[in-house]
Amino acid sequence: MTFRAQHLLGIEKLAPDEITTCLDLADRYAEDNRKGRAHRDVLEGLTQINMFFEASTRTQASFEIAGKRLGADVMNMAMQSSSVKKGETLIDTALTLNAMRPDLLVVRHPNSGAVDLLAQKVTCAVLNAGDGRHEHPTQALLDALTIRREKGRLHRLSIAICGDIAHSRVARSNILLLGKMENRVRLVGPPTLLPSGVQDFGVEVFHDMREGLRDVDVVMMLRLQRERMDGGFIPSEREYFHRYGLDAEKLACARDDAIVMHPGPMNRGVEIDGTIADDINRSVIQEQVEMGVAVRMAAMDLLARNLRARRGAEAAGVMV
Ligand code: NCD
Question: Coil, strand, or helix at residue 77?
């Protein structure tokens, strides 16, 4: 197995063989989860702390379930009521937690780069559960696993990522991962919602949804991230749905067997028509949630192996 990383901070730092290792292991966990087969010995004796400085439903829940299925002691820090509210800095909070000797720290933070900074200050393995607009590596891995299971491969596919790309860490991590695995990535959205420097991403850019979806294998929709907007990025939600919302008519431009994805939470009637989201023949949104648990089990398993190996080597070094 090839997985050298000490932390999972982003897709940017992962090599294709590390991505494949993680997906292969996650695939096995997905099958065992379906059979109800537990693996409580994998993280036995390890402590996992979840620190979410930003709201989350599925990511936090799935990290918690993943840790518990592997036998870790899981603690959720209530960041709303923690000392952060009293003005303690992120670094001080991290050092305090580090002194309690956790093994896995799962962090979501509204600022891009905050999780990397924190990882430099602690001795355990850190997993980025989303930092600002920067990265959301486990989301990209679970999306990749879903695609690979649905399409039977994860290379030479044509994938359209649509909507609010500028504010999306999900888009950024997916662009990196899908590019590393040699797929053709298209970004589809209004010019105001595309990030600056998009021409350097190695992707094709479309402002017309029907053109952008032409013959793609995968349609990945993104939430309109209102909380990260400070002005008029779109004329109105109605107009946005008319031009960029996924409905049956626009989806008809994609391949007949194209799958529809969305990381959640969804704004029905804004970026996606509710009937498309619920269409079990096209939408794999529930499978994405299911794969989320398996991918987080795999990521924590691989990081814990490296952590144990590192600690073992350190202990041996001390004794010599
Ligand atoms: C995403 C996130 O928080 O970045 N959601 C998620 O993790 N499932 C996408 C979003 O909030 O739109």
Answer: strand
